[in-house]
Amino acid sequence: MTQALHDQIHQILAKNADPVSLQPLSSVAEVKDIASSGEVVKVVLHFGYPLERARASLQPALEALLAPLASKLELVLSWAVKPAQNKPLEGVGKVKNIIAVSSGKGGVGKSTTAVNLALALAAEGARVGMLDADIYGPSQSLMLGVAPGTRPAIEQDKFFVPVPALGLQSISMGYLATADTPMVWRGPMASGALQQLLKQTLWDDLDYLIVDMPPGTGDIQLTLSQQVPVAGAVVVTTPQDIALLDAKKGVEMFRKVHVPVLGIVENMATHICSQCGHEEHIFGQGGGERMAREYGVPVLGSLPLSLSIREQADGGKPTVVAEPDSEISSLYRQIALRAAGSLAGMAQAAGGAGAFPSISIVND
User: Which is the most buried residue in 53, 279, 311, 360, by most CB within 10 A?
Assistant: First the structure.
């Protein structure tokens, strides 16, 4: 009975997609425990991505899938984030997964997307850091509502202590220079500054470090991709052709340096008139999907052109914090969990199938 039950569960996981991350259930969840007591079967599924908010929708969906196993099913969901690759960050802080949020050109909403994805992962229970790697135009301190003039504490005369903001650990060049001081640096200087921010920051046991990259494919991007163990990249674009051309260059760059592209975020995909509710694709339609098919990567999600997104980010309370139950916040959480699910699948593949679950039978 035990082996048959175990085989049934694994067949169900192998045949069905995770409704949250869209990955195969067998790649993001492990069977940790099976216990049978009379008519009751208890199954513990352990996920590789955070799911505190997602649990409310995930639990009933999985209970429906596993219902044929027993007349009375008790399903328990647990989670823990694992590194997607076995190369740790060579620095003083502990970071499991580094996610680069990139764009081929400026003005597509990359920084706003990055901060909302970080906050969405934190809302699911993960320990998340934000590194503003846009050395020439740092903006995360403003978006996170950090008071002007805030400076990170220094330990042992050489290590930065992350600045806490909205539940994130953050570091940015914006904390080290005034808002009116331009970074007039050549590429090697900027790349050196990025490495210092990464490796000399006392990150406190992060599940994810979100890196807000500068636009383009220059020195800083190559430094991060080649010298730092980036687990995966998210490429942000708008549907218009010129933005897609530049976004393709970003995807190609990550491929050449062997950084997995977790997916594409299509920003400003539609505009909904605040007066009449009419929806219009003012920057074109379907560009992100065509690009995704061309490169064999998923579209993690599409976001509307919305005045509230801009106003909330500029006001120091991005949408996921300002309106956590809104439709737009739901889209950001969808994107974040799909990316996290992809990393969970990579971590499970790298670590093998895992230990065989414990199985116990009482009064069977």
Answer: 53
The two structure tokens encoding residue 84: 């997607």
- pLDDT the model gives residue 1: 47
Averages of pLDDT over each 10 residues, the chain, 364 residues:
77 93 94 85 94 94 90 92 85 89 83 96 97 83 91 90 96 75 54 79 95 78 78 88 73 85 88 70 68 84 89 94 95 97 92 49 48
* Residue ranges of E strands in the chain: 29-37, 40-47, 72-79, 95-102, 128-132, 154-155, 159-160, 163-165, 168-172, 206-212, 232-237, 261-266, 271-272, 279-280, 299-302, 358-362
List of domains in the chain = 2-80+352-362 (3.30.70.1350), 95-324 (3.40.50.300)
Distances (CA, A) of 209 to 138, 155, 359: 17, 21, 36
Distance CA 20, CA 49 (A): 10
3-state SS class at 136: coil
**3-state SS, residue 166:** coil
Q: Which is it for strands 154-155 and 159-160: parallel, antiparallel or unpaired?
A: antiparallel
DSSP strand pairing (128-132 vs 206-212): parallel
Calpha distance 41→311 (Å, rounded): 50
Q: Residue 192 to residues 157, 189, 224, 351: CA-CA distances in angstroms?
A: 18, 5, 10, 33
The answer for residues whose C-beta is within 8 angstroms of residue 273's C-beta and 6 or more apart is 279, 280
Residue 320 parent element (H or E): helix 319-322
Q: Which two tokens stand for residue 167?
A: 């539940």
Residue 178 identity: T
| pLDDT for position 354 | 43
